[in-house]
TrEMBL record:
It comes from Candidatus Uhrbacteria bacterium RIFCSPLOWO2_02_FULL_51_9. This is Endonuclease. The keyword Nuclease applies. PANTHER family: UPF0213 PROTEIN YHBQ. Belongs to the UPF0213 family. One of its GO terms (molecular function) is endonuclease activity. PROSITE patterns: GIY_YIG.
Length: 79
């Protein structure tokens, strides 16, 4: 089953990176439910700005870690 690494832009213009099997559902959770990340709950609404589909959860988590190590400028270039 494929997984997606995603980046959302929060209302305060910060970026949040995560992984999900169903990214649209995950963005909905960030915006509308208590199941979203604590970081995004205080920064709603979030907007999906980047996705990258990967073959497995382990590959997606490794890519997520790579992206999180990037500077904001590098993330903006990726987007």
């Amino acid at each position: 089953m494929s997984h997606t690494v995603y980046i959302v832009e929060c209302s305060d213009k910060t970026l949040y990176t995560g992984t999900a099997a169903h990214v649209i559902n995950r963005v909905f959770q960030h915006n509308k439910t208590g199941a979203g990340a604590k970081y995004t709950r205080a920064r709603r609404p979030v907007t999906l700005v980047y996705t990258e589909v990967l073959p497995s959860l382990s590959v997606a988590r490794k890519r997520e870690a790579e992206i999180k190590r990037l500077s904001r400028k590098q993330k903006m270039e990726l987007i």
